[in-house]
Amino acid sequence: MKRIFISDCEGPISKNDNAFELTAHFIPEGDKLFANISKYDDVLADVLRKPSYSAGSTLKLVLPFFKAYDVTDKQMEDFSEKNIVLIANSQNTLHYVQAIANAFIVSTSYEHYIRALCKALAFPYENTYCTKLSLEKYATTQQEKKRLKEIAKEIVKMHIIDIPSAARTMEDFSRNDQAIIQRLDEIFWSEIPKMSVGKMFIDVVTVGGEQKAEAIRDAVKRLSAKIADVMYVGDSITDVEAFKLVRAKGGLTVSFNGNSYAVKNAEVAVLSENNVITAVIADLFCRFGKEKTMRTLRSWSYEALKKRGVDAALLRQLSDLYPDALPKAQIVTAENMETMVKESSEFRKKVRGVAIGRLG
User: Fold this and answer.
1) Could you tell me the domains of the chain?
2) What does the pLDDT look like over 203-217, one tens digit per residue?
3) How far apart are CA 351 and CA 333, in angstroms?
């Protein structure tokens, strides 16, 4: 039985944050709108832990504003297809991994983007899990559109919520931030749900948080396998539950240019502009198992990779790209965690840009 390779999409495979880019493109000051809602998403998912709320629900909360500005599924598809930006060697890495493992992509992204990405990478769409959406299913009135545009402008004017590192309750936020959180609660859980577009909040299920963990369970069930056979690669708050599941069951968890949420919940942190490192770690895990992979990572060097017997063609590719020293791939420990969080968060912004890199 082949082992199972499961990866998030945006971050580990592509540089995009497609939902952010769509919002910025089609909605006036959409970059600010998305950033503010994304931070509110982090508050609900990680601090206040709103019941039945999943990390990554920003992709649901922005949808009424798409309807307000008459965005269509066709526009989303065309924009997604034209604006894919891959991490270097992503296609070669996925092709290599497909030869040695059962490969899946689990992404919070809209299906419009994932279909476009699969087409670009020649990856089977049936081996993906993503947020299903049809904008055309939902109607709205001119009055609602006008009000939603007013709400969008109001959110844009808000400052981004500051989340204190030890925050666990509303009282841990500043008074100004408490007022912003309460206002956003009114907007998203009282005002918009009363509109016709409020049905989107019920129908659309974003694949983030626990839904990613459930996707892993489903993929493993499809193959009659075990979660211990899974290598999972992620980079953000939407991957935390997936990391926790795979790690608890004995699989391997890898943060690829991850933010603080990813680094703190993964066993291995990778900092790289090239996906060949993912292929190397997948080769180790699929051929030699977790224990030997972790042992090799503890002495991360060309010598250790050669001694372990990593695929010779991969090693040649790696040495051509990095003749002097390997990109960082380090086991995350209690002692180095804060350092790795800082390094990975900064490297993430370098690879994906500051606007995308700072999103949760």
Assistant:
1) 18-80+133-203 (1.10.3870.10), 90-104+209-357 (3.40.50)
2) 999 999 999 999 999
3) 24
